[in-house]
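Researcher: Please predict.
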Amino acid sequence: MRIDAQRNRARILDAAEAVFAEFGPRASTEEVARRAGVAIGTVFRHFPTKDDLLAAIMKRLLAQLVEDAAQRDLFAFFAHLVAQAAAKKTVVDLLAGSGVNIRLPDAVGHLEEAVARLLEQAQAAGTVAAPVRLPEVMALLASVSQGALHGGWDEPLQARTLAVIFAGLKGT
């Protein structure tokens, strides 16, 4: 992809994330184009349908989580994810109720691999109990993120909830 096309794609995704977060999944692609500073044809060239655009946003958000996981330990990643979910509603939450059927097995798989590495490192360091497995950690991450997202948790509630989870992971 040409450099200018890559820039346009990134601007479209940035604008789309903001527009969908503001207006929900019914937001117009025309508004996305306007905020990105591109013609509507440019949006459709990159993303032929609104579902394609939403899927690209989801894929990018999951890729960002994989990057975030690589820069943190398991406990810091939990805290980061909860703080991020509590701070803002993103297109991820909006997609849940939109009826848009988006399947991103590769992106989700990369996130699971990143969390598996964090779990292995934590268990090797002795900070997470040996019987804890990846499915439990992924379930905890999903549950606590959804709780923070829908509940708008303040920092003290985030800290107390994470303390309970961390004690459980440590086996204490």
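Model: Residues 13 and 57 are 6 Å apart (CA to CA).
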